[in-house]
Amino acid sequence: MTIGLTICLSCDRFEPGRPAEDPDGFSTGRCEAFPTGIPVAIFAGGFDHRSAYGDETLLFKPRRGVSKTQIDETVRLAESLDDE
């Protein structure tokens, strides 16, 4: 998995400066959907959170000014890096 590309930073629900850590110490940050920490599978760009993740009902919500095209390109690039 490639860490570094995430649509989280373009999400209106993302809470910058609000760290959360998993038991292994990797900080993913928090959001309205994941107040105890964003799952690594989403934050690392391996899962497109415009679709449901487990039982979570809150989905990715683009910040104002972020286009669907920009999000599509970020997801496409993250998926291509994940394939390498």
Mean pLDDT figure? 81
The oligomeric status of these chains comes to single chain
Q: In sequence order, what are the helices and strands, one letter per element?
A: EEHH
Largest sheet: 2 strands, antiparallel
Proportion of residues in extended strands: under 5%
Give Rg in angstroms. 12 Å
Shape: globular
Helix content: 10-25%
Catalogue the unreliable spans.
Answer: none
What features would you describe in this structure?
- With 84 residues, the chain is mainly α.
- It is 24% helix and 5% strand.
- It contains 2 helices and 2 strands.
- The protein has a two-stranded antiparallel ribbon.
- The chain is globular, with a radius of gyration of 12 Å.
Name some characteristics of this structure:
84 residues; mainly alpha; globular
Explain the layout of strands and helices.
Layout: E1 14-15, E2 30-31, H1 40-43, H2 68-83
Antiparallel strand pairs: 1-2
Short description, anyone?
The chain has 84 residues and is mainly α.
